[in-house]
Each structure stands twice: as structure tokens, then as C-alpha cells.
Amino acid sequence: MKFTFDWMQEYVDLPTSDPEEIAEALESLGHEVEGWERTSHRFEGVVVGRVLEVGAHPNADKVRVTKVDVGNEVLDIICGAWNFEAGAVVPVAVPGAVLQGDFKITQRKIRGIVSNGMICSESELEVGDDAAGIMVLDDDYPNAAERLGEDFVGLLPADDVVFDVSITPNRPDCMSVYGLARELAAFYKLPLVEPDLELPGGEAATSVTIVDDVACPRFVGREVRGITVGASPHKIRARLTAAGVRPISNVVDASNYAMMEFGHPTHAFDVDRLGDIVVVRRAAQGEPITTLDDVERELESIDIVVADGGKPVAIAGVMGGADTEVTDETTNVFIEAAYWDPPSVLLTSKRLGLRSEASARFERGMDPEFCRFAADRVAQILVETAGGTVAGVVDEYPAPPAPRSIELYMSEIERLLGIRLEPEAASDLLERFGFRSTGDDPLIVDVPTRRPDVHRPADLIEEIARLYGYDNIPGRLRFGDGLGLPVREQMVRTLRSVMMGAGYHEIFSFSFIGAADLDALQLPEDDPARTGITVVNPLRDEEGVMRTTLLPGLLKAASSNLAKRLDDVRIFELGKVFLPGDGVLPDQPDRLGFVAAGGAMSGWDGETPGYDVYDATGLWEMVARSMRLEGTELRATERAPFHPGRAAEIVHDGAVIGIVGEIHPAVAATHGIEGRAIAGEIEVDPIVVEGESWQFEVPSSYPPQVFDLAFELDSSVPAGVLLEAIDAVDQGMIEKRVIFDVYEGDPIPDGRKSVAINLTVRAPDRTLSDEDVAPIRRSIVEAVEAATGGTLRGSV
Amino acid sequence: MDPTANLSEPMETHEILEQLTSESPARIDEAGTVDELEDLAAEITGKRSPIAAGRRSLGTVPPDQRRDLGRAINDVAVELNALIDKRRAVLEAAEASEALASDRVDVTLPGRVPARGTTHLIQQVMDEIVDIFVAMGYTAATGPEVETEFYNFTALNFPVAHPTRLESDTLYLDYGDDPEGVLLRTHTSPMQARYMEEHEPPVYLVVPGRVFRRDPVDSTHSPVFHQIEGLAVDTDITFGDLKGVLDHFAREFLGPEIKTKFIPHHFPFTEPSAEMHVYANDRWMELLGCGMVHPAVFEAVGYDPDEVTGFAFGMGADRLAMVRHGITDLRHLFDPDRRILEQYR
């Protein structure tokens, strides 16, 4: 909320005018100052003048010729405004004056007659928003007529400062100049000016019936009769403008001014259009109302309305109705000041998209005790600015708030803040914010009705701490007894560092995808990844579904890099996917996804190769080894978006936990990827399982026997079968087996292939002799032949 | 040398040795390559050399001369071998340095850089912050990103009609039939409630994670961002502890000289609440929100607010990364451009 220093000074005599100091004081109280700005006048050479004569221009209909007394001389000035006559005191820009920073005023001829300057409007001087007529220095400037020829700046308030303060939602009582004045008075230990307001009572002509006292525990109506609708005085319009509220008419302005001043929103009805019956109730479902903005709206049964005998005439706390709106012809008004149920106002205003300064206050909770004052304050302003007289008042108060008092023990203050206060000190701090207390320890503290946020000792302790000063509470460094980083988190970090070590860069993409992203993967219609959970209220269609796979984000990232000629892309992401499950919440497992593409960069000594499926399977093997994952196997698979002949499922404990391989060329092509690209997506949970601590093995100090074997097998037999067969020959001595050649063609018969393996066999406790190795070699040959149906080709 | 010489004649042998001794040193010195030298060595001292022949013939030499002759042969062999070895060393050194010279390359041509990737900056920042608190005796946990309205709001003392519960602020999912609704968590704070429900006090916990709000993307907003939540609950935690711990954190994360201040704020789940500001880049700026755990939160999770007190805090990892590394637009953090990712080393 915005307010001026000058306005604040009316309620508390601040010891400083330094905006920085005031901003710091407000901030230390918890009211963040978003900014402050000096309002300085950007004109010079403007003096006070009195119009002596007004006459017609011989050659022009739309302007008049005036004689203006500017103290030491009388000037002829041509003026296009018609809102004044002889006798008006006005600001005059004499030749040589400069307006709005650089607009120079000179003598000039207008239709044959010389004009010696310009009579100014508010907007030309930037002291208000009125551009229609010139600025007449009326009752707001009582001494103006005695100061002819003096600099007009002298009549304006001194340079002012506009503060913009952000009020936290728990403090509706601070959404006003007076509310913040109370806080600053407490801070500076200064008295707060008590506003003086005595208006006559008397019964209002309008009767009020409250049907739902939860919706409306109090409703005050104050009648003001005989007003003339017009513009507000300059001071009111200037302050409203500074506060970010557009001046409209003296009636609307009075309501807004009182709201900015004391916080409580009010609404003015044209009482002659309203009638003499007011009913406060919930709307009927579907009940229509045409609001001030001439929009017909359909109400729901949660909405609170002010109705006349039959139809709604206002949506309570949100917007008035067009039928009872104050117009230029209005002479009698009924000012409503009520307490509206905060949740109802919130839901109604949000649903209708009608959020306003008023609804923002009601939805946080106003002070029901303040309603009468609020209505009377508006009436008082109207009497001053619209010439009305105060008439009757109606005050229905079916549900006053129960008095709230809280027991506050000094030990509780110490328990929460770590400081020890004497009861008098605590009582004094609370008193400064307007909390009266009795007793000693505990203090019995009465909570003002304007404070809907204070219910418990902790709430009072916050008040004490705010005024005591958070900075004055000594800090204490205190360590916990938590058990550090859990093993799973450590293992996830290891997983990330393995990917980093393999040259992959981690990306963070959004957790949403759109249906188009799955189409781009060319997933079949029945693919489980298509059963994503939809977002009810997404900001954009392409963020309408929770991701079921990490691949769209990775492929798009790869694609965008390649499009920018960033040719070698190796990226990974570790994050959640979201899948329908059995519980209250969806399944949200972590996955590791990766993509590598491009990679054909040429260096000075030749080209680095691109990527193929063996880079993907090899990367997985590196991951599995790093995570000490035993007993996983790869199985050929055909699954979108992978190449049907170049992808493998990862099988662990009988379950498929991931897939690695080459991206289907068609999918790669739609992503602008040329050549082979690899990808993978692996469940994280199964690979970050905490196992027994690994146990050290002493390496053998004896030399190995190294020999080669070559088998001829059917081309369709996967090499994996052969390797599994060798691994199953558990001699505890087969240290290493490396396939170093796979060959098809002459002299191997068609449909057969030769696979050559280099084996390293080593004993832990002795040097192996040829005789030792022979049976191992025989076992291997037998196992491989049995598993693959192949035959030994003889040692290579 | 005359291979037909009668080596059984000691006198002849002596002559031959003399001849060898006088002629060989010059020839050895003249050998230009190791190969030439080896050929020469074979001729002079090898198996078919006069020296070898002389040794073989010692058996036929009269016994009284055998000893002298043997010694003479040996002396010559030793002398010549020494010369050969010396020459070989010279020649080998020359040849080795010639080979190295021809192996010379331009060492300023770019080397082959092993590929090294990076972890994401936000992840690094989250890990670093977690580690700072782990070093202060905290443990870490993560929680679900899709949450129930209960854990995200209700258990944290948000009023039923709190504005952030509305669909204008929070992303809801079409899932299940929980009457309170399933949503994308708007902060990491739901883990406060979940963790306390599962664990008895004391609690010293940090929770890094991804959170969501219904904010369109711009330079300071994103529907997806990241937080680190902290919670300390014990029998005697005070606001002073909150200040001490978070001040220590700021100094560890931003440098020992960093200045902090705490100003009052409002969060539904803490009371009193505060923001910690730090003085960085020539101005005060908000670093995190914090406060003493609200008694209503303790009640919601089954802790007795008369028995325990605690503090909680939450901070934005993305923002902290931006502050520390001079990133002025949040969108860069979600950009997978390799030139950006490579900076995260």
C-alpha cells in the first residue's frame, strides 16, 4: 500500500523526515518498504494570479481573453478553459516559466492577440490529474488571494515522499495510514493522534435485516442528505493519486479516502434508488446482478449480497450494483460499513475476477468494532466536500466478537525467544501496540478486535519480539544430533558423479510435458507413458501433463543444442516421473535418463566417432559397476522410441528396470538429429540400494595364464549367452574375459559366426602350470558349447 | 690377420695378439654405427675371432707357456671388449638421441581432453547447502513432489480460504478422489509435517527439492523451482538458535564477512516469523524465510507444543544460485544450452 509522509504526519509526529530511516523502522516492524519516492514539483516561474476580467476573443469561439493580476502587473492571457470566471485565483505560468521539466512558456500570438503566459491546469503542473479545466485555488488554498505574484510552489505542500509498503496478509489492520501510524508510534514511543469524530445519532430511514450473521456480524448504515456530487478538493485527490487510487467524484473519493486513511472499506448507495429496506443474506444459486461496471453476473450461494426488498443491490465487500449506484444527480446517500466473512469475500472476488482494495481488506478480516467510525468518517468527509448534512444511522450488530484474552507467561517468552523479560517490560511492549494487559506472570492480555491474527501466546510473543527488535535477540549456534546424509542420498550423488565422469552434463527440465511430446517419440497409443496425469489448471497446453518419461525433455534439449551447432551433446537428467498408482498420491519414482548425439567433431588428428548402441550399453555397465550392482543382464528389446534392433532392456532381479540403446532413426530425424544417437532411461531406486559394506580382496601376486579361445556358433546366438556361460564356470580363477573378435564370412559357413575370446586365469595362491589350466579351459569349452550350441574352433 | 696361422705356436699367438692390440683400437673408433661395431666385435673377440681361436688352442700349448699365453689372450680380450663397450655406448646414445629427435612433435597442438560432464548448478547449490547443515548435525530427506492439499496447506496451518490454495496460484492434478485435492507442492514445507509424523523429536532435518507454483515464466518466476527446507525441533530451541544457525549458514555459504539481519515477516506455519536478509552486491536482499514452528503445526503432527519448540526455514536454491553467480534471468537455469551447462564445472 502507498501513502505520503505528509498524510502519516497527521497521526504521528515522526521524529525524522528521512525516508530511509522511516523505511528501516517500518521494515524492523515487519512491513517491507518496496520503495519510496520524492514528489517534487517539476515547474518553475508559476505565480499566483487573480482573474480580473474575462472576455470573448474576437477571432475565436473556443478561447477567451482574460486580464490576470499577477501582483506587480496585469497580463492579457488567452485561455481555453471555461471552468472559471472573473475573481478566480489561479496559478499562472508567466513568460519564462518552465513546465514539466522542459516546456518553456513564452509570449505568443493566438489568432491575432498576444497571450502573455498560460493559466495552468492540475495536470499541466503535475499536481493532480484534472486536465479538463484550469486549477482554481479555492478553499483548499485559503490565503491564495493574498499572495498574488508569489511563487505558486509556496502554496503547495513541501516536497513529500510516497512510500510503497508491502503488508503481510496477516495484518489487515496495517492496510491504512492510521494502521501504520500506530506501528510507527509504537516504534518511536510516540503518542498516536486519536481521531476526533462525533456525529449525531438518530434513526435512519432505511431498515437493515441481517439474515446470516456469520456472513455479516455487523452492518452500519449512515445517511447523508443534500449532497452535491462533484470533484473532491485538491488535497484529497492528490493523496488518493499518490496512494494509487484514481479520484472519481467526491462521494467515491470520500469512501476511498477513508479506507486508505483508516482501513475499513465502505460503500455508498443512492438511498433514493435503494429504498428503505436492506436485507443482508447469501445469494440464491444463479441469482443475477448487474454490477457497477455494467456487467451482468450470476451469483452462487456462497456469495453474500446486500439486497433491497427483493433483488441484490451489491455483492458484499466486492462490488456495488448498477441500480443503486451514486450518479451525478444523487443527493442522498446511504453509507454502508460492515464486517463481511473473509473466506466468502475471498472466494467470491476470486471467482468473479473482481479483486479490489476493498475485497483485499475484507478477505483478510476487518475490525467489526470499527464499522460505525468508518461510516461516520465517510459522512464527515462528505459534509466537508459535498455539502451534505448528516442524517440518521442504523447499526445492526447481531454477532459481536467474543472478547479475546490470552495468558502470557514470562517463561513462555523465554522458551520461544531465548530472552528473559520482566512482566512490566513485556506489558509495556504490548501496550505500545494497543494490547492492554493485567496481572503479573502470567499477564492477562486483551487482544484488540482489529487483530484477527492474534490467538495464542506465540502470537503475542511475536509482537513483543517485533518491538524488542529481532536484531536485539542474541544468536546462539547450536548443533543437532541428526545422522547426516542418508545412504540413498549419497548413492544418488555417486550416480550423478558417475554420469559426470562419463562426460555427461546434467540438465534440469520442467516436470510437465504435452501430448505432442509423446507423439514426437512415436509411442504407440497403448504405451503406458501415455497414461500421464493431467494438470487441472496448466498455464500452457504444452505443460498440461505430468511427465511419464524423461526422454522428451532430453531429446528436446539435445535437439536445441544441435540446432545451434553445438555439435557434441551428452546430457543426463535425474528426476521424478509421475505415474498412476494405487495410493492417494501417484507413483513418483526417480529416473536417470540420458541422451548423446552428434559427436562427429573433427580434431587436428582425425575425427572422434559418433555414438552407437555400445556406447549406451557400455555406459550402463559403468553405472552398474560404480553402483556395485550385481547380476543385471541386458536383453534385446523392441520398444519406442528406440531402434528396434539396437536397444536393450536392463533386467535386474527378474524385473525390467530400464532401457538403453539407439534412438529410432525416425524419432531422431524429427528432433533434427543426424546420424546415430543413443539414449537410456533407468529407474533409480533399484540401483541405489544400500547393501552390505563391500569387503576387501587381496589381489593375487602370482602370474596369470593368458590364452585365447574361438567358438563357431549360430549367428543368432547372442554373445551375452556365451559370456554368461563362461561366468558360470566358477573356478574363482577366471579373472578377465574379453571378446576381441566377432567374424562372419569365409571360411565360416553362412549363418554362423566366429567369436574369439581372450581369457586371463590366475590363482590366488600359486603360479598356474599348463596342467592346472587344462581342466579350466576344458570346463569353459564344455560350458560354452552347451550353452550356445557352438563348437570350439581351436586356440587362435 | 692370417687365419691359417699356427696357433699352437705360442710365439705366433703372441704376434697375433700384438697385432690385434695395435690395430683394433683405431678400427673400433672408426665404427660408425652400432651394427658396424657389432660386426667388428665379432671379428675381433667373437667366436670366430683369433682370440677365441687362441683360447681353444691353449690345450695344445706346452704346459710351461700355457699360463702366460692364457693371461695374455685374456688381457687383450678384456682391453678390446672395454673399448668396444665404450664405443657402443657412444654410438647407442647417438642413435637414441637421433631417434628422439625424429619423434619430436608440436606440443602446442591441442591435447586430447578427457570428456568431463557437470552436475547442474541448482543441484550443486542444493548439495552444498545440505552439506553445510549436515555438518551442523542435520540429516537430509526428500519428499513427494505431488502432494495432498492436506500436507501442503492444512497441516501447515493455512486457513481453509487462504488465497494460495486457489487454482490461480497452485497447480492441481486430476488424480484420485482425495476430498482435499492433489496438487504440485508449492514448497518443501510439507516434509516438515510428514517427517514429524514419522519421527519422534528431536528432529534436525534439511529437505532439498523441486516445487511448483502457477507462475508464468519470466526473468524472476518459473512454474518450477527449487527449495531447501530446514527444521529443528527439540526441547529447548529458541529464536536465538534460529538466528545463530542461519547466520552461521550465511557466512559459510556466502563468505565469513557477510552481514545478516532478521526482520519480522509472516508465514502461516511459523510464529514468530522472520526473513533473513544479507548485505550483498551493495544492498540488503532477502535470502530466506524462517520462524519458530507454529504450535498448530506441532498439534497437527501429534507433537506437544508445550514439550517441544523448534524453528523452520526455507530458501530458494535457484535464487541463491543466481545471487552468487551473477545470473540475472531465471530462465537461464532451465536452458540446456551446452555453453551454459559447461559453466557449471
In terms of topology, how is this protein built?
The complex is a heterodimer of chains A (796) and B (345).
Chain A: E1 2-4, H1 5-9, H2 19-28, E2 32-39, E3 44-57, E4 60-69, E5 74-79, E6 89-99, E7 103-104, E8 108-110, E9 113-115, E10 118-119, H3 122-125, E11 160-166, H4 177-188, E12 207-210, E13 218-225, H5 234-242, H6 250-262, E14 267-270, H7 271-274, E15 277-282, E16 288-290, E17 296-298, E18 304-307, E19 312-315, E20 319-320, E21 333-339, H8 342-352, H9 357-362, H10 371-386, E22 389-396, E23 404-408, H11 410-417, H12 423-432, E24 437-439, E25 443-447, H13 457-468, H14 487-501, E26 505-506, E27 512-513, H15 515-520, E28 545-546, H16 551-563, E29 568-576, E30 590-598, E31 602-603, E32 606-607, H17 613-626, E33 632-636, E34 642-652, E35 655-663, H18 665-670, E36 678-683, E37 705-714, H19 719-728, E38 734-743, E39 752-761, H20 770-788, E40 791-792
Parallel strand pairs in A: 12-15, 26-29
Antiparallel strand pairs in A: 1-11, 2-11, 3-4, 3-6, 4-5, 6-7, 6-10, 8-9, 13-21, 13-22, 14-21, 15-18, 16-17, 18-19, 19-20, 23-25, 24-25, 27-28, 29-30, 30-36, 31-32, 33-34, 34-35, 35-36, 37-39, 37-40, 38-39
Chain B: H1 10-30, H2 34-45, H3 50-57, H4 63-102, H5 121-135, E1 139-140, E2 146-148, H6 149-152, E3 172-173, E4 182-184, H7 190-198, E5 203-212, E6 224-234, H8 239-254, E7 259-267, E8 270-280, E9 283-293, H9 295-301, E10 309-316, H10 317-325, H11 338-341
Parallel strand pairs in B: 1-5
Antiparallel strand pairs in B: 2-4, 3-4, 5-6, 6-10, 7-8, 8-9, 9-10
Describe this structure in words.
The complex is a heterodimer of chains A (796) and B (345). By secondary structure, chain A is an alpha+beta fold. Chain A is 26% helix and 28% strand. In chain A, α6 crosses α10 (371-386) and α19 (719-728) packs across α20 (770-788). By secondary structure, chain B is α+β, with helices and mostly antiparallel strands. In chain B, α1 packs antiparallel against α2 and α1 packs parallel to α4 (63-102). The mean pLDDT of chain B is 91. Chains A and B meet through α8, α11, α13, α14 and β26 of A and α5, β1, β2, β3 and β5 of B.
